[in-house]
Amino acid sequence: MDDTIITRFTDIPKAYSTEISTAIAIGKEIETRARDFYARNAERTEEKELKTAFEFLASQEQKHFEILDTVAQKLQEDGRFAVINKEDLRGPAPPKIYPNKKENIDEFGEKNELTILLWAMRAEKKAELFYRTQANKAELDEAKEFFNNLADFEAEHFEFLDALFSAWTSTDDFILG
């Protein structure tokens, strides 16, 4: 990834460097697994809307990986934290997806698209929690902001998937209770 996304560098105490580096390494693994999951399922699904959604999310996870990798490289090279503009983290707007299909809960099989959506929603929540935890642990304000921004984008991914799930399984505003 090119260095134009870096707005500035912040010197960090050596004690924080290991903690931030570890969190970034874990984050890179999370983003890699998410990217691979979305790419694999984009290939598998025959549902046009899900294919578009999964391709979008795979590209988002790849972008997050590249940003984490840039921050990790700069930390390793100079021992400084690379501050990234929040808009560069965001990437393009999600596609507009309005599925026409409704699926009954009794058709909710082991490997169908709804199962994949639920898994993805859960994974996005876990990623958000991981980044929020890292933000709360971070002593450096810039690292705190960076991890909170990543958490916000994982939350947006969850909301995107939740809207897709809601549209797909709409009960026409029938309230259960």
From TrEMBL:
One of its GO terms (molecular function) is oxidoreductase activity. It comes from the Archaea. Residues 10-69, 116-170 form the Rubrerythrin diiron-binding domain. It holds the Pfam family Rubrerythrin. InterPro entries: Ferritin-like, Ferritin-like_SF, Rr_diiron-bd_dom. PANTHER family: BLR7895 PROTEIN, RUBRERYTHRIN SUBFAMILY. This is Rubrerythrin diiron-binding domain-containing protein. The lineage of its organism: Archaea, Candidatus Iainarchaeota, Candidatus Iainarchaeia, Candidatus Iainarchaeales, Candidatus Iainarchaeaceae.
